[in-house]
Design goal:
Blueprint (H helix, E strand, L loop, with lengths): L10 H10 L9 H14 L2 H26 L3 H22 L6
Length: 102
């Protein structure tokens, strides 16, 4: 739904974005950066992980949930739900029209 609030990034994703800003990783491949991100994540102290990354991410998630609850009461949300039902029905109908090889 293009009008719905966007789900926030997880603590690990935010941390990964932070790691990718490291100039020493500028010319590294995606796989190398992913390995380095995982290594650095595992090396974080429990306190740093919780206070610097997880708590803010949890706060953003809570805010998103509240925004989504408000969004569910809007006409845009209701319209999109109708669209999804109609889309699923059309998809189901088109599948039933395809002949089976059996």
């Amino acid at each position: 739904d293009p009008n719905a609030p966007h789900r926030p990034k997880s603590a690990y994703v935010l941390f990964g974005e932070h790691v990718r800003q490291d100039p020493t990783l500028r010319f590294s491949s995606f796989a190398e950066i992913a390995k380095e991100t995982g290594k650095r994540w595992r090396e974080l102290s429990h306190e740093d992980r919780a206070n610097v990354w997880e708590t803010p991410a949890t706060d953003r998630l809570q805010y998103y949930k509240e925004e989504f609850e408000h969004y569910e009461q809007t006409e845009n949300y209701q319209s999109y739900q109708i669209y999804l039902k109609e889309f699923e029905q059309r998809r189901h109908n088109s599948k039933s029209m395809i002949p089976s090889d059996n």
